[in-house]
Amino acid sequence: MTPRNRAAANRRPKASDGPNSKQQQLAGFTQEGAAPLTTNQGLHIPDNHNSLKAGVRGPTLLEDFILREKITHFDHERIPERAVHARGSAAHGYFQVYKSMSQFTCADFLQDPAQKTPVFVRFSTVAGERGSADTVRDVRGFSVKFYTQQGNYDLVGNNIPVFFIQDAMKFPDLVHAVKPEPHHAMPQAASAHDTFWDFVSLMPESTHMLMWAMSDRAIPRSYRMMEGFGVHTFRFINSRGESHFVKFHWKPKLGIHGLAWDEAQKIAGKDADFHRRDLWEAIENGDFPEWELGVQMIPQDKEHSLGFDLLDPTKLIPEELVPVQKIGRLVLDRNPDNFFAETEQVAFHPGHVVPGIDFSNDPLLQGRLFSYTDTQISRLGGANFHELPINRAVCPFHNFQRDGMHRQTIARGQVAYEPNTLGNGSEYRVDGESGGFQSFPEELEPPKVRRRSASFDDHFTQARLFFNSQSAAEKDHIVAAFRFELSKLEVPAIRQRMVDNLAHVDEKLARRVAEPLGIGVPDAKAAAGRPGFRDHRMASTLEESAALRMVDTGDGSIKTRKIAILVADGVDSASLKPIREALESAGATCKVVGPRLGTVASASKRQIDVDATYATMPSIMFDAVLVPAGKDGAIALSQNGEALHFVLEAFKHCKAVCTVGEGVQLLSSLGVKADGPVPAGVVVAPTPVTNLGDNTAAIEIAQRFVAAIAKHRHWDRAGIEAVPA
Ligand code: HDE
């Protein structure tokens, strides 16, 4: 550490540092790479290429402490990956409340709209190992560490508002079932295997979560385009000690969008880092991802008014019953400097709360309160992980915990106990009265029992609500996902058990899922006869909830969307210009994709710069595709299998496609013609926009294309099954 860095590290961040307080603290630990090379003891290294030998061709000497230090450090570079959520990507940013929440909570970071609280946010997949692909079908983690002036507050959530199980006791079983099977360690980052479905088909409480996991929520287009949820019910406590139950939501500015399943699988091979890259690039380009924090609040005395148990993590509170109030915004505006030091070493814990926020008795949450510190001790090598730069609170922290592996704090003085008269009593006081954390004094009359509450027994009503709330295309995707996963099973009895359970959600859904699986018709009675089956239906009048759908979410913009402009020799470059300008001024990024790097020659012999090739940036890397005019260009594109596949695949994945003039030939195998009807989300400009006579016509084409992209995907596009891509 340089003296400047050391001074910065020792400086206590102040509230007035706002969102920079964490950045300034981290700066104290950050190192640039320009200094002379030394050993870890500071000794200048004379030669970083050759070890010390007995003669130039002789054996290496044990004495070579420089070599040994380097190799030894290398040998110990790896730490265990997280038991779940091993693969993740993170970013820095800030949170700002819209108006004081003092009526409900005394949490300091939720009082002052002028205050920006620094945050570090990590997104993750759950089942895959650290090096697995981003776009697998899975739940996503959404962990937010708020560095508040009252200590760190961690909101460790997921992108799905419910969970597979109701009690922490079942978590190791769930994770063992979904992880690669223990005898041969397959499959990686996938739930489509026997052990997972064996387990969940025996646990009907998982049905609601399975509906979400089989929906497009589990294959997000981007971390920037997914919701986050605290899942459990928590409590807000105000300065009078009054409690409201609270559910947390993160609502993405860009809407909630998914990939096509075929696309997600292909991306996993072509760019395993798809979501990581997307997040990184958006932040580098200044397109800072943004979410609004929403809360659903239920007064303490209304705990039992919803018809289901607030403590049951397999239930959500429909927004129609309790509206989500947007109370602040989260902006991610800085990429980490070092993946290991920050993204890997960050340690979240749902038990990291601040005054004004407290727990409920949700038995899943209660189990989590034990697990997270415990797991960091083995993952990060000891009890002092809170001293790692990324984990340090920005407010002062001190107590009499001492020593342990990798301790960094040098605690001065004679005493390491409390109470004492030998140390400075005032500095180490116990602060219950003035702002110290007070647990909500909930009254309990507990007989000691190892049992599940009967109020947790309805396993299907909300699964049905979720399914009923989907658009027709989203329902089709859910059916297709169940079919895909269950087709991968080797044991037909597990498939059967699962569709029998689904018959309790919706008969038709179960029948559709079962159809291609080579099993019998779904048998609801058989499911009801199995151990563990419960179906105590709650009184619910709600048939559907619009908030559970993904379609038509977002701000209607095409900001940060990626558009491919497909070129070959002979395309008409003039026809591209007005559309490209319109796309870019609407905030999209355009890339010219051609048969080779360098340039292609336009119809008028102009050179068009190519950004990427069809092979390295296939259609699955884009949100939409634009095919320019030009007779020779259209022939060249149609005769190139990769280019043709590019357009057909984009079409099959329901993306917006715009063809200009002769470019429509690339859609001829689909029966699309310049003067005929066009499928949803396809824009066909009959002649090159530059020849349309007036600029208004060109703008109109561009606007139609922008509107088609803004819809994200045209999932109801007819005939995509027949497209050979
Ligand atoms: Fe976690 N979970 N979890 N979990 N979880 C971990 O903690 C655990 C649960 C979630 O980006 C582990 O530091 C138990 C629900 C996220 O670093 C571990 C139970 C939800 C992350 C652990 C649950 C989550 C974790 C592994 C049931 C959504 C990634 C490494 C009782 C609300 C945090 C670690 C990050 C990570 C335990 C259930 C979210 C083993 C025992 C429900 C986002 O401690």
Average pLDDT reading = 94
CATH superfamily of the domain at 88-189 and 221-387: Catalase core domain
Name the CATH class of the domain at 88-189 and 221-387.
Mainly Beta
Q: Classify the beta-strand content into a percent band.
A: 15-25%
**Distance between the first and last residues' Cα:** 55 Å
Q: Radius of gyration, rounded? A: 29 Å
Q: What small molecules are bound in this structure? A: CIS-heme D hydroxychlorin gamma-spirolactone 17R, 18S
Function: Decomposes hydrogen peroxide into water and oxygen; serves to protect cells from the toxic effects of hydrogen peroxide.
GO biological process, one term: hydrogen peroxide catabolic process
Keywords: Heme, Hydrogen peroxide, Iron, Metal-binding, Oxidoreductase, Peroxidase
Cofactor: heme
